[in-house]
Amino acid sequence: MPAATANPEARKVTRPRADALRNRERIVTAAREMFVEYGPEVPLDEIARRAGVGNATLYRNFPDRDALVREVVCSVMDRTAEAAEQALAETGDAFEALSRFVHAAADERISALCPMVSSTFDQHHPDLEAARHRVEHLVEEIMDRAKAAGQLRADVGVGDLMIAAAQLSRPPAGTGCVLHDRFVHRHLQLFLDGLRAPARSDLPGAAMTMEDLRQA
Questions:
Q1: HTH tetR-type domain: from which residue to which, for each copy (predicted)?
Q2: Residue 110 to residues 134, 144, 158, 203: CA-CA distances in angstroms?
Q3: DSSP collapsed to 3 states, 97-155
């Protein structure tokens, strides 16, 4: 029996699929950069230009601005979760995984992107909720493990971590991102060091949950 050969038609289908995936990734990367630099109203044709694709390619992947913003936010949350999961798998150290998550979130500019969720589109879209729940559950699990190991002070909640990390990684008013980059990780590390057990002080109030944060 002759050896099986690849179907030429199958090869023709596979190549465009890979090219389309690369184009989509370029669009999402360019959109993330430009949303951070210029805000959510940056013209879509400018995003297409930075991504090196035509307008038709952008609209074929993302029919409107909301779809593109949602994909950017979801991809950023996915990457921050992956950073924490990788740290946990590599080291088995829950506090190291927590630190990796916080620093990765700052690198991804998550504090600049997440406010766009409430102002531009449906917060309850299934893709967005799935990405958000993945991050929240992962961080909650890591924090519980760090507390059980005696690494993390017991009087902080997931909401405390999220709001403090967002505030510390958001550039102050009138401050450019380049200048901000010089001190954001330094300040985040000071914050993380303050989370370590044993606690050196008593925190006022109660630990903040994600539900508290959503209702604030």
A1: 21-80
A2: 15, 23, 16, 26
A3: HHHHHHHHHHHCCHHHHCHHHHHHCCCCCHHHHHHHHHHHHHHHHHHHHHHHCCCECCC
Domains of the chain: 7-63 (1.10.10.60), 69-215 (1.10.357.10)
Q: Is the pTM of this model over 0.85?
A: no
Q: Which pair of tokens denotes residue 26?
A: 């370029």
Name the residue with tokens 């924090």.
143
Q: What is the pLDDT along the chain (216 residues), one digit of tens a residue?
A: 444 444 544 444 445 578 888 999 999 999 998 988 888 789 999 999 999 999 999 999 999 988 998 899 899 889 888 988 998 898 899 999 999 999 988 888 877 776 666 555 667 889 888 988 898 899 999 999 999 999 999 999 999 998 888 888 776 444 455 555 678 899 899 999 999 999 988 989 999 888 887 776
